[in-house]
Write a structure and sequence with these properties.
By secondary structure, the protein is mostly beta strands. The protein has one domain. It is built from two helices and 14 strands; from the N terminus they run E-E-E-E-E-E-E-E-E-E-E-E-H-E-E-H. The strands form two sheets. Strands 1, 3, 4, 6, 7, 9, 12, 13 and 14 form a nine-stranded mixed beta sheet that branches. Strands 2-5-8-10-11 form a five-stranded mixed beta sheet, with no helix packed on it. A hairpin with a 2-residue loop joins strand 10 and strand 11. The longest helix has 20 residues. It is globular, with a radius of gyration of 17 Å.
């Protein structure tokens, strides 16, 4: 298995930055991608910061996309776009974790705009898409129909594999230390979502799901990336 780290030397993303990440997993190959720490999106004086991620998996390939959380400072103007392209029998198992503001420093997400987009295609067909729009200070951040006061969120997506009833039931038994969570199984996609206050709690929950899904879908034991312990 190829295990690689995405390292951004400045340590943060500022207004006006454009980052492009491209990952291509070859036929029958297996790659696991993570990063050494949380990414930080700093407040902007006006320009938008953009992250474009293109992830492709050839026939029989496996991609595990396991970034640590992205912290959005109040005042950040960010656009994150991720596109996943799967070939026949390719599998994608990945997650995204976000933290709004810096509660430990007394900072809530009162200003800023976030656009968080994800598309998953299989053999040229769109099988999953979502568009997240978050505005600092918006009433939806506190409404029951929105974040409900939560300051962190996580989404795990498994695409290109079928999850059986027993595995689905086991995933639904994985507890979270705080917040709300739920799992939806669709014909070609499994989607798990979490809302809470501490990104670490969300990461622990999606890691618990991954520890069940990885052996079943990827055929390897769930071993935590060593870099997470540094």
């Amino acid at each position: 298995m190829c295990q690689a780290l995405v390292v951004h030397p400045p340590g943060g993303i500022a207004g006006g930055d454009l980052l492009e990440i491209e990952v291509r997993v070859g036929e029958g190959a297996h790659a696991q991608i993570t990063n050494p720490g949380a990414s930080k999106w700093y407040r902007s004086a006006g320009p938008e910061a953009i992250l474009d991620q293109a992830l492709s998996v050839a026939a029989g390939g496996r991609l595990e996309w396991l970034p640590q959380e992205a912290i959005f400072f109040s005042g950040a103007r960010a656009r994150s776009r991720t596109r996943v392209d799967l070939d026949r029998s390719g599998i994608y198992l990945g997650w995204d974790l976000i933290a709004l503001g810096r509660p430990a420093a007394g900072e809530s997400f009162e200003r800023g705009d976030l656009a968080l987009d994800l598309e998953v295609h299989c053999c040229g067909r769109l099988i999953w898409t979502e568009r997240g729009r978050i505005r600092g200070g918006d009433a939806l951040l506190h409404a029951a129909a929105g974040f409900g006061g939560a300051t962190a969120a996580g989404t795990l997506v498994l695409a290109g594999a079928t999850v059986g009833d027993d595995l689905l039931a086991a995933c639904r038994e994985v507890p979270a230390a705080e917040g709300r969570w739920g799992i939806t199984r669709l014909p070609e996609v499994l989607v798990a979502r979490w809302l809470g206050w501490q990104a670490a709690a969300g990461r622990a929950w999606v890691t618990g799901l991954w520890s069940l899904l990885r052996p079943a879908m990827v055929g390897r034991d769930a071993v935590i990336p060593r870099i997470w312990n540094t």
